Amino acid sequence: MPDYWPGGRKTARLTRYLPPMTVPPPDHPIVLASGSPRRRQLLEMLRLPFRVMPPDVDEHVLPGEAPDHYVTRLSRAKAEAVVARAPGELVLAADTTVVLPRTRWKCCRACRGKPTR
Questions:
Q1: Is 4 among the domain residues?
Q2: pLDDT in tens, 57-72
Q3: Which of 16, 34, 53, 100 satisfies CB 3.0 to 4.6 Å to 104 for a cystine?
Q4: pTM of the predicted model, to two decimals?
């Protein structure tokens, strides 16, 4: 893996955690399981071949569900939904949520949600 991303930013800290990356061939692009404009932008910045396939999943928070469990569950659900429509392809799925500081979190569990611009 190179020491620098395009644009010259040093990635020394990242290389300790990420395995070597292989760019998929243009005829087998990554399937992005997301309708997020930001995730699309990130893949474009990396110049990786990809196509978008938004998943159709219920994104409601389960009662008492912790934020980390919520994003993990949702990421898996998105991946599974898209893998079923794109079998054998490399699928990239992720989720993001916003959580208020713990002191406020105890007061209002409903105060989290999708990030906005």
A1: no
A2: 998 889 988 888 999 9
A3: 100
A4: 0.65
